[in-house]
Amino acid sequence: MSTTDTITIEGFTAWLAAFRDRVTEHRSYLTELDSAIGDADHGANMARGMAAVMEKVGASPATTADELFKTVGMTLVTSVGGASGPLYGTLFLRLGMTAGAVAECDAAALSSALRAGLDGVVARGKAEAGDKTMFDAMAPALDAMDAAIASGASLAEATAAARDAAAAGRDATEPLVARKGRASYLGERSAGHLDPGATSTALLFDALAEVTAS
Amino acid sequence: MSTTDTITIEGFTAWLAAFRDRVTEHRSYLTELDSAIGDADHGANMARGMAAVMEKVGASPATTADELFKTVGMTLVTSVGGASGPLYGTLFLRLGMTAGAVAECDAAALSSALRAGLDGVVARGKAEAGDKTMFDAMAPALDAMDAAIASGASLAEATAAARDAAAAGRDATEPLVARKGRASYLGERSAGHLDPGATSTALLFDALAEVTAS
Amino acid sequence: MKKLINDPDRVLADALRGIEAAHADLRVDHENRIIYRAIPKDHGTVALVSGGGSGHEPLHGGFVGFGMLDAACAGEVFTSPTPDQMQEATKTVDRGAGVLHIVKNYTGDVMNFEMAAELAAMEASVEVRTVVVNDDVAVQDSLYTAGRRGVGLTVLLEKIVGAGAEQGRSLDEVVALAEKVNADGRSMGMALTSCTVPAAGKPTFDLPEDQMEIGIGIHGEPGRHRVQMGTASEIAQQLVEPILGDLDFGSSPTIVMLNGMGGTPLIELYLMYGDVAAILEKHGVTIARSLVGNYITSLDMAGCSVTVLRADDEIVSLWDAPVETSGLRWGR
Amino acid sequence: MKKLINDPDRVLADALRGIEAAHADLRVDHENRIIYRAIPKDHGTVALVSGGGSGHEPLHGGFVGFGMLDAACAGEVFTSPTPDQMQEATKTVDRGAGVLHIVKNYTGDVMNFEMAAELAAMEASVEVRTVVVNDDVAVQDSLYTAGRRGVGLTVLLEKIVGAGAEQGRSLDEVVALAEKVNADGRSMGMALTSCTVPAAGKPTFDLPEDQMEIGIGIHGEPGRHRVQMGTASEIAQQLVEPILGDLDFGSSPTIVMLNGMGGTPLIELYLMYGDVAAILEKHGVTIARSLVGNYITSLDMAGCSVTVLRADDEIVSLWDAPVETSGLRWGR
Ligand SMILES: Nc1ncnc2c1ncn2[C@@H]1O[C@H](COP(=O)(O)OP(=O)(O)O)[C@@H](O)[C@H]1O
Ligand SMILES: Nc1ncnc2c1ncn2[C@@H]1O[C@H](COP(=O)(O)OP(=O)(O)O)[C@@H](O)[C@H]1O
Ligand SMILES: [Mg+2]
Ligand SMILES: [Mg+2]
Ligand SMILES: [Mg+2]
Ligand SMILES: [Mg+2]
């Protein structure tokens, strides 16, 4: 692994900005997905949250990952609400705690920080595989990332693998009957629709792959 | 004038039944007219009122005009409500009072009874020519009826003239700006629509012409 | 048409059944379609009767009870009740001190109440007086027309005059109070959508997505003007300005009602009230009391109306007096 | 989308401004979006905090006041508020006797209130307890799902538990009372139309003229089934039967709410209540108290829900106890 095969604070900030851009651009689409099996606010929630994040991050730039992601997590927790606020908030809070007071992360460090984030999401939301939630995009993404790293992939290659797996995981939510979150109230009627949270999670990994592309 | 050139109690009852049939058949149309410049109930009001009238009249058949039309008027007053209830109610109450305790009326007697009814409508509602109300069909109808009688017309000819004049009067309400009733609240926007009450009045004279046709 | 009904022609009868089931402190005369207080007021006290077409709930049945009406006569949807109903109600509620008829100024209501008063006076020698409410500034007033409609002010008038009657005021005093309230209040309404009269089965009018009706009444009738849809604060302006242009509120305390037409959710009504209050205050109007909610509605119409009443200490204290009805309730 | 708003992203802020202007007995913290009683309750008394997404008005802000809540945290439309809001409200209303969080069972609400309770316990050593309301029989309950939604029963629970707290009951007693009410109440809802979330700009779902959704919640979500439109009495049957099938009401007195979803006029709600009451009585259910109107809404959705609470003399007397909020007010 070369020494440039890391993601720096600037890289993290670019990631967040790219995620903000994606949820803003796809705001209506996310809301449409949430209209079908939820309450029509996921686009607004994510756009509002990431706008607040970038404002905070811009106002007081961080120098270490733990600092940066604590701000991101707390901002999401205090500006989003709903299910996605605590869940994405917890993801970033745990990610930062595990990454620690560092200025950059290599692929392995990033992956284990992300996995800590996923564990936090599970601890909060109790979702399991196949419940039709963001978990179903996030868990496959991290599995693919770990597998890529284990087989010697670069950071760019590992995040590309994560992006593809997240997208596949998102697509795989379509036939599922939801067992967690608001969509579960629809019972069988929740099948046949993509999960909004899995879709925003796929955007998160798409943004990561873009900013770490070599 | 031949002695058969009269309208009897049976004729009056047939007239009322024919009017009931017309307002029932045109219920939606009258309501549609009232939707444009009123509150969308004229069809329901007239249909409800005339159904009640025919029920009452059927249950206790009258032998004289005053009896019959008192029942008609009181039934309309107590079953219709709105503007048309007291107005049509007064029309029939006065008509009966003027016709008196008779079993039949010739054209002249009928016309003067109808005119007493019109006077009652004016006393209640204060409408003048061109206010865009039922007056604008009723007054021309009676003027035409009187003119026909004065020139020696039969009952059938006189009621036919009344029917045509009522229809023309109804049509003439279209361009008018309403000054009375609910349509007056629309100001200039009331122009360009037929008046619902003038339209039901034209049906009343149409029914009369039919049952008195030779 | 999608409505929670059994039959378009049975809406009123069925709704009265529900009102009776829901309110132990009301008595419903189903035959005559009259809603009474279960416990009549004291002898020697002026009684208040109102009524009108149905579809404006809670008006008037929701305002029967201590501190407001003694009886409400319910007509068919948007159709004034008939004289026999009002006469029956009048005879029943009279406690020997006379009866005030509160009539909204519509040709039908006025004529039917007129006939009722004639009958009541003839038949039972009840002293009947009438106040005709005509507060709608959207309608140009003139001797040669039907005049202004009675709209939102009716709610305030029934509350204030009801409180006056409860105090034991004489019929003359009650009439004077009613006339004062009517003279000092103005309203203006708007619609985002038409309502649908059950018996008609479809919306009374069509309104494109980008337009609204300004100057509507409460019977689903189109308004005075159809204009481009605006923001809440632009709409507030269009409702408040004609009211302020019509009556000088000076530095009197006022009572302000922001009323929903039936299909607009409360969150929007509060939002509108925020804008209305801000505009009134900018114009120097002092708001002493306010009321936000659905009080005089037009079936499922979306939209709202503003009513402003110029008050004084007496009116404000009558407003604050205890009231116990299903539609307004406080202080007791 | 036609709404009385200024900007889809400013709806909540603007509505809070209107609520503040309309109610002198409420205090609004605009920064934290919290509605408080203007005059806090006595020291040593358990305080009640609730909250949730906006768009359900009068819930929860309309139930802040004597006899019900001490504070309501308002989230964005249909989006649970955030933990910092609830934590702030909790610290502010605590009168030394602990605070009850009343949470409707939605993943978002539960998680955000959980975080708030953790923060409040850590930071200010306020004793916080939580009741999660889950009364919706439309949702199958299971350990492996999010469980039942909290819907109409929330209104009854806030009233009854609020009365208990006002009596000076301890936190443990208040929690037990809340759990009892939650265990003994059931609800079921239906929609004739979708609502429109302002930020989404269009209806959440489409529903043909001849169909309705049965088993909806209060967030504009589609229901469990889409069925042919029916008469009011058929609909009443479809709402009441799942409730009676889920809980045995025996011969207990019950409190029944017929709630409107926001876009349905009161005349239809009364009509529905007539049918609901008739069906309940046919099944031998004793209705001791009832409530008909818009109490927990879903923006402009047309439709209604039924809530039935199995009560006893104590619950009925807590229901009857004085309450003074903008949404419910009696007896004081
Ligand atoms: N228990 C859970 N665990 C993980 N993810 C969840 C859980 N519940 C809901 N979600 C995710 O949250 C998404 C919905 O987010 P959002 O619409 O913003 O919140 P809300 O459902 O409160 O309106 C769902 O699409 C799903 O992916
Ligand atoms: N003052 C009046 N004099 C004569 N006719 C009137 C008057 N006011 C209204 N009308 C008639 O009544 C008709 C409306 O009747 P209807 O719709 O049944 O009553 P409402 O207007 O109370 O709903 C009008 O079309 C008009 O012809
Ligand atoms: Mg959502
Ligand atoms: Mg009409
Ligand atoms: Mg009418
Ligand atoms: Mg939500």
Protein described:
The complex is a heterotetramer, with 2 copies of chain A (214 residues) and 2 copies of chain C (332 residues). Chain A has 214 residues and is mainly α. Chain A has one domain (6-212): Serine Threonine Protein Phosphatase 5, Tetratricopeptide repeat (Alpha Horseshoe). Chain A has helices at 9-25, 27-37, 42-59, 65-79, 84-99, 107-125, 135-150, 155-172, 196-212, and strands at residues 6-8, 104-106. Chain A has a two-stranded antiparallel ribbon with strand order 1-2. The two termini of chain A are 13 Å apart. The mean pLDDT of chain A is 96. The mean pLDDT of chain C is 96. By secondary structure, chain C is of the alpha/beta class. The longest helix of chain C has 18 residues, at 107-124. Chain C contains 8 helices and 14 strands. Chain C has helices at 11-22, 83-93, 107-124, 153-166, 171-184, 232-246, 266-282, 313-320; strands spanning 26-29, 34-37, 47-54, 71-77, 99-104, 128-133, 185-191, 211-214, 225-228, 253-260, 286-293, 303-310, 323-324, 329-330. In chain C, the strands form 3 sheets. Chain C has a 6-stranded mixed beta sheet with strand order 1-2-4-3-5-6, sandwiched between helices. Chain C has a 6-stranded mixed beta sheet with strand order 9-8-7-12-10-11, with helices on both faces. Chain C has 2 domains: 12-184, Dihydroxyacetone kinase, domain 1 (Rossmann fold, 3-Layer(aba) Sandwich), CATH 3.40.50.10440; 185-319, Dihydroxyacetone kinase, domain 2 (Hypothetical Protein Tm841, Chain: A,domain 3). Chain B binds chain C through residues 31, 35-41, 43-45, 48, 77-87, 124-125, 179-182, 184-187, 189, and chain C through 9, 53, 75-84, 106-108, 111-112, 114-115, 136, 138-140, 144-146, 149, 197, 199-200, 204-205, 217, 219-224. Bound molecules: adenosine-5'-diphosphate (2 copies) and magnesium ion (4 copies). One adenosine-5'-diphosphate sits between chains A (34, 38-39, 41-42, 45, 82-84, 87, 121, 125-127, 133-135, 180-182, 195-198) and D (79-80, 107-108).
